[in-house]
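Hi team,

Below is the intake form for D-lactate dehydrogenase from Ligilactobacillus ceti DSM 22408. Please confirm the fields before the structure is written into the shared record.

FORM ID: S-0412
PROTEIN: D-lactate dehydrogenase
ORGANISM: Ligilactobacillus ceti DSM 22408
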Amino acid sequence: MKFIAFAVREEEQPYFASWSQATGIEVELHKDIITPENVALIQGFDAVIGLQADQYPDELFAQMEESGIKVLAIRNVGVDNIHLDVAKKHHVTITNVPAYSPNAIAEFSITQLLQLLRRTAEFNARMERDDYRWTPLIGKEIRSLTIGVIGTGRIGQVAIDIYRGFGAKVIAYDPYQNPTLAQQGIYVSDLADLYQQADVITLHLPATPENYHMLNEKTFAQMKDGVYIINTARGSLIDTQALVDAVKKGKVAGAALDTYENELQIFNYDLGQTGVQDPLFVEMKAMPQIIMTPHIAFYTETAVENMVKIALASALSVIETGTAETLVLN
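The structure came back. Fields below:
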């Protein structure tokens, strides 16, 4: 049995190697993502292991059917870049890694909020100019705030626990309520209630057509003046231009963005020679009220190991049993 893995980064290689040694299954590693030009590489293998933000090409699934490969195991959660109808047409099973490390993302989102509240970026900019004055950059404490959590899956639940540890009041919205949290009375009746009450709004939900640009000019207007926005989920959840406008007006006091709706040609690339050719991104990057990071909330040793090993184990399970606990499409 042989697997082929694409978009393999250097830090992932030891985990592929240890799994291969433990199972006796050869895994051929490639640095490139899957494209129409390289799908022929999968011939002769029993499973494809992928990880990419770019669209998985439809040609991949046709080639998998032709080659008799039954499973594509992705090393992340989201499947919005996979045409599931095309995969199903070609009888390809899809698995994902639904919980590689909820703590990694939840912890990161809170570290970003702490920087916003203590105005770290603004103090850093002053210190670069040898200006060491404090005023008027006074901070806030989490325990004095109402935190609005949108999405109470695994990541959202961890975030809620951490915020409670700080002593904050936490409210939440999710169309699919967690029974335990519901018993605690944490949920508000609708998003408008959350927008009106929350001092901080943190997003922990997937990208779907229904929640595209859920934070927009209209919803920002419903929020408290001076609200903080945290997004470690998906860039498409926020209308970026509307966010920038809200920050300029003072409606939004600060935002921490680990993801951006037009990030595909920016994040995980070295653009030191060319610079970023996206005026909106460049504008945000220069704004001291906005903290931007290149989609790294997940990026811990624990998470990377889990992403690799769970994807590999899922592929093996599909081949041996026809199913896996991480099925997305069968």
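SUMMARY LINE: Residues 301-321 form the longest helix (21 residues).

Thanks, M.
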